[in-house]
Description:
Elements: E1 3-11, H1 14-30, E2 34-40, E3 53-59, H2 62-70, H3 72-75, H4 78-84, E4 85-93
Antiparallel strand pairs: 1-3, 1-4, 2-3
Helix pairs in contact: 1-4
Amino acid sequence: MxxxxxxxxxxxxxxxxxxxxxxAGPTLASAGAKVLxxxxxxxxxxxxxxxxxxxxxxxxxxxxxxxWYQSPEYQAMISTREQAMDPQFVLVEAPPA
Length: 97
């Protein structure tokens, strides 16, 4: 079953954001993930979600998504991510078809 990482991020430092994206992108590719949607947050319809940009990333399955997040390659990007943005990540497992 596919799994989806939904991220809504408040950008803090645009230069660090570019550095993070350049480093995190290859880690996603090596995990077999696909960025399905990336763009500006248009509107929050309900709740306290705040952010400038949102992403939806598809992984082959939830275990692959967890392994990507915990991988040494991605973990090395965490300090850059913290300087670049205030992130909110949610992992969602698709139901069986």
